[in-house]
Each structure stands twice: as structure tokens, then as C-alpha cells.
Specification:
This protein is mostly beta strands. The protein has 2 domains: 164 residues, Hexapeptide repeat proteins (UDP N-Acetylglucosamine Acyltransferase, domain 1, 3 Solenoid); 147 residues, Pnp Oxidase, Chain A. It is built from 3 helices and 30 strands. The strands form 5 sheets. It has a 9-stranded mixed beta sheet. It has a 7-stranded antiparallel beta sheet with strand order 25-24-28-29-30-27-26. The protein has a 6-stranded parallel beta sheet with strand order 2-5-8-11-16-19, with no helix packed on it. Strand 22 and strand 23 form a beta hairpin.
């Protein structure tokens, strides 16, 4: 254990302490469990005397967190971990259906959590996770596999919902949080202080900006509904979608602005019902800007390194801008 580090009282279980390395100025919270190696083995499963669990300098590990390693868990410097997080480099195997799962040898994969990252309450980090530097993992997320540097991930399984692009900043942009009575240099229409008057609550915004495909319903000339799937985002308290051509939905909205948008969030409520968001509103069409908006949305829906539209010099296209009038569905937006 490094200089000025401590384990708070009351401590949790510590197993295999000789295979655990803790850096300087690190705070291990109460009831934190640290387990390295097999409890009944003479040493950890690892490479020689190399420690199994390494926690860097200036980290904070929240109350009730469990870090359980058989081979390798590496936590960088300045990592903040909220309460009740579970981090492991091994999991039960179920490959042999003739052997009870608890009796099968575990599957093992090294885990890395990059420096400067933050893991929210209740996060689960599974074997093989490689979390980059300066990553935020939203509360309740389940992480497995690689997570790029400078990103925000959420969900089960966790996926990138925001990332930082050099020269462009955070995508989607981070909304400014204005203190009571404070002023900002940002567009006031995009300020969080408008939220009490808006239907776009934090829960609704999260559902709309997490990369879930949306069903957009417009009305044709005969009044028949037309349904299409679209990528959506939020700009200045309007829900936005982009189109390179004057497709049927664009023509429909120009004729009749009434629209309905629905999204499945992938979450379930306490009653076991799938959550979904329904937005009733009125839309308007603006010309130009579709390519830039599609690129921003592609970074959310496809990945941080994608170029979209894929062609050079795409047409200016059209942007649908929806003003919500009513929110429905199943989720925290209806409570």
C-alpha cells in the first residue's frame, strides 16, 4: 500500500493481500471487498509474482464495492468508483450442459480501467473489459469489451452515448448547467434552466440521445400514417432528424406538421415491462445542415470514428425539427 493511502472502517473482506497493490493517496471505502487469487490456493492465478489487482494513485473506491480478480485487474491513477460497483476478471462458464454451471472452470479475461475515469453507482465490469482513459460509465451499466478514451457509456450492455472528438468537442454537446441566478455565454434556448417549462426532462433527453432508433409517424395526403425509422438528437429543445432527400416524410410534414415519435429504450421497469417513450408534437422542415447533423448522429449510432454520410460532398438535405406537445409511454417520464 502506497503512502497516505487507507482503508476506511469498517473494512470489507481482503483475500490474497500479497497479490494486491495499492498506490499512494488512495482511499478504499468501508465494506469494500478485495479478493485476489483462489481462496484455497497457495498463490494467485497470474504470471509469477506479478500482482493480480493493481489500484493506482489518488483513487477512491466507494462503499460496498467488490473487486475480485484471478488473473489481472488494473485500475489506473485518479479513478473514482462509486458505491456498490462490481469488478471481476472471471465469470461462470456454462459451455458443458452436462455439468452444473457452478462446477465448471471460470472463463477469465484481464480487466483494465484507464486513468481519470469515473464509474457510477451499481456498475458491473465484466471479464475482458478494457475501459479507456477519461471515461464515464453511467450508473447501473454493465461493461464488457473495449471502451474508447474520452467517452461516456451507458446501458446493459454499455454502449457509447457521448464522446470527445478533437476540434469538435463533446458529441452530442454537453448541456450547460446554470446555477440559480447565474448567467452563461451559451444559447439560452439550450440552457438547463429552461427544463421546468419543457417536456424534455432529463429522462426524456437521455432516451432520445442514447442511440436508440426512433419510429417517426407522419400523415400522408389521404390521412394515412407513414412510418419510418430515423436517428434522432436534440437541438435547442427540439427533437431533430436529418434527411438527404425530400423523402415522403419530408413532404408529409410540409403538408401536415402533426407527428408522433416512439422509441424503445431497452430498459425495464420494476414491474418487468419494457420501457418506451412516445412523443406527440408538431414538426417543421428546415433546408440545409442535414450532412452535419447526420455526422453528429452517426458518432452516437454507429461509432466515434465513422464518416457519415459516406460520400464526398453530400447534398444539403433537410432537417426535421419537432416541438413536443405531449409525452407518453412507459417509463419515468410518465410518473
Amino acid at each position: 500500500m502506497g503512502a497516505n493511502s487507507c482503508i476506511a472502517f469498517p473494512p470489507g473482506s481482503v483475500i490474497g493481500e500479497r497479490a494486491i497493490e495499492i498506490g499512494a493517496e488512495t482511499m478504499i471505502g468501508p465494506y469494500v471487498s478485495l479478493a485476489a487469487g483462489m481462496p484455497l490456493a497457495t498463490g494467485p492465478i497470474g504470471e509469477g509474482d506479478r500482482p493480480v489487482i493493481v489500484i493506482g494513485d489518488r483513487c477512491s473506491i466507494g462503499r460496498g464495492t467488490s473487486i475480485v480478480g484471478l488473473r489481472e485487474i488494473r485500475i489506473g491513477d485518479d479513478v473514482a468508483i462509486a458505491p456498490n460497483v462490481y469488478i471481476t476478471d472471471h465469470n461462470h462458464s456454462y459451455a458443458d450442459v452436462a455439468v452444473p454451471i457452478a462446477g465448471q472452470w471460470p472463463a477469465i479475461g484481464s480487466v483494465r480501467i484507464g486513468s481519470g475515469s469515473w464509474l457510477g453507482t451499481g456498475v458491473v465490469v465484466l471479464p475482458g473489459s478494457d475501459i479507456g482513459t477519461h471515461v464515464t460509465v453511467a450508473a447501473g451499466s454493465v461493461v464488457r469489451g473495449p471502451v474508447p478514451d474520452n467517452s461516456v457509456v451507458a446501458g446493459a450492455p454499455a454502449r457509447v452515448v457521448r464522446h470527445y472528438a478533437g476540434g469538435k468537442g463533446w458529441i452530442p454537446p454537453i448541456r450547460p448547467i446554470a446555477r440559480s441566478g447565474a448567467t452563461t455565454d451559451h444559447d439560452p434556448e439550450a440552457s438547463v434552466t429552461d427544463l421546468p417549462e419543457s417536456l424534455l426532462t432529463d429522462h426524456v433527453r437521455h432516451a432520445l440521445t442514447s442511440g436508440h432508433l426512433a419510429h417517426l409517424v407522419t400523415l400522408g395526403a389521404s390521412g394515412d400514417p407513414q412510418v419510418t425509422l430515423v436517428w434522432v438528437g436534440i437541438e435547442n429543445n427540439e427533437i431533430v432528424a436529418a434527411h438527404l432527400g425530400a423523402w415522403q416524410k419530408v413532404r408529409n410534414i410540409r403538408r401536415d406538421p402533426r407527428v408522433v415519435l416512439s422509441i424503445e429504450t431497452g430498459e425495464r421497469n420494476d414491474h418487468g415491462l419494457d420501457e418506451y417513450l412516445v412523443v406527440y408534437g408538431r414538426a417543421r422542415i428546415t433546408e440545409g445542415g442535414a450532412a452535419d447533423l447526420l455526422q453528429k448522429l452517426a458518432w452516437v449510432y454507429i461509432g466515434p470514428d465513422v464518416k457519415f454520410p459516406p460520400m464526398d460532398n453530400p447534398p444539403p438535405g433537410y432537417v426535421t425539427r419537432i416541438t413536443p406537445e405531449r409525452i407518453a409511454g412507459v417509463g419515468p417520464w410518465t410518473t
